[in-house]
Amino acid sequence: MLCGKKERVKKNEERQSSAKVNRRLRPPLPVSFFYGWVVVALSFLTTLVGAGTRSAAAVLINPLETEFGWSRAAIASAVSLNLLLFGVAAPISGWLLDRFGPRRIMIGSLALLVFGVSATTFMQEFWQLVLLWGVVVGLGAGGTASVLSATVAHRWFVARRGLALGILNSAASTGQLIFLPLLMAVIVAAGWRVGSWLLVAVALGLIPLLVLWMRNEPADVGLEPYGLGEGDASPTGRAASTDVSASVPLSEVFRSSTFWLLAGSFFVCGGTSNGLIGTHLIPHSIDHGFPEVAAAATVGVMGGLNFVGTLLSGWLIDRVDARKLLSVVYALRGVSLFILPFVIDFSGLFIFAVIYGLDWFATVPPTIALTADAFGKRSVGSVFGWIFLSHQIGAALAASVSGAIRVWLGDYQLAFLMGGVMALIAAGLALRIPQPRREAQLSPVPSEAAST
Predict the structure, then answer these.
(1) Yes or no: is domain 37-216+248-431 CATH 1.20.1250.20?
(2) pLDDT tens digits, residue range 362-399?
């Protein structure tokens, strides 16, 4: 009788423990669809805010030049440091994402952005701009960049991974589409400090949503990655990369020609996007007599078209050779940069915005896909972090060199033509990337040790 009572008590304890586990593994936000899409939405918003904050430098150059008397080249050097540290943060955040999961990194990155931008409104000396915007904002934005997108997509999706990558990587351009025209209007009406506090408010408002609803991986809510077990390789014969083998050592990664071809082409991507166009298009347009708000609206048009281009790129990598797609995107970018020096009116600027906008971030989904194919799911965060670092080194160099060319020659024409040549070189590099030697095998993804 005593034994029976002990057994009943033990069973009740087991049932209570099981109920607690089930409650803990339920999605924190009840939805009728796969919870990974909620995670994609939260990651999208985080990247959107991070990109909008980082790119705000483009509309701050002229106000800072006017208020403090700092030269265009000096301000460009602070932006260059921002871009460089944005890249330096990538391999670090890739390692942190693999170890601790996206949730903590997203919250910490937004907190850094809040501190950096809010403190910038009190600065009086140039070194403070370098420290706050160059260092703090650069590192904070790095934690919300494409490495985050790669990690989230590969943790939560097997099927529809290309679509998830397309959505996530369109967030950066969407952030610029929303923030740049809005910030320029606010700056013109109320000053750059009010615009900066607007950025702070948006980032602060997002943090509680991440605390409540963001989760690191499907196992945290009792699910498996979307499409696991379907075994549906893409029509191109390229299976989704979900292998659970050990991470590829960096020594092996650095000996791979695939890594250097991806890093080299992405170096050009950073130079011709964030460094050249992202930093200097608005000042160039203002130099040529375009109204400030109209110049910022051009970047908005680019962002809108890039949303389409990046989604299309993500959709296509499940259907065509990612190397060829990447090459076409770089070639299209080169054509647009050859057009820009000859633009003399708003209609020409609009045509440039359409062509460039379609390829702006469309390089990211195929680059991530090729990284995953070559090095496996377990290494995506860390390896792509190093590739993204090369992107930002290119961006930093281009931002500084383009600013120096503007001071030296009085315009940006030579910088744009140099960017067009570099983009065509990147198109050639993409075609030289070898096919993966083996296809990744579809197999379950174990839960990570990272806590939520």
Answers:
(1) yes
(2) 898 899 889 888 887 667 777 888 898 898 889 889 98
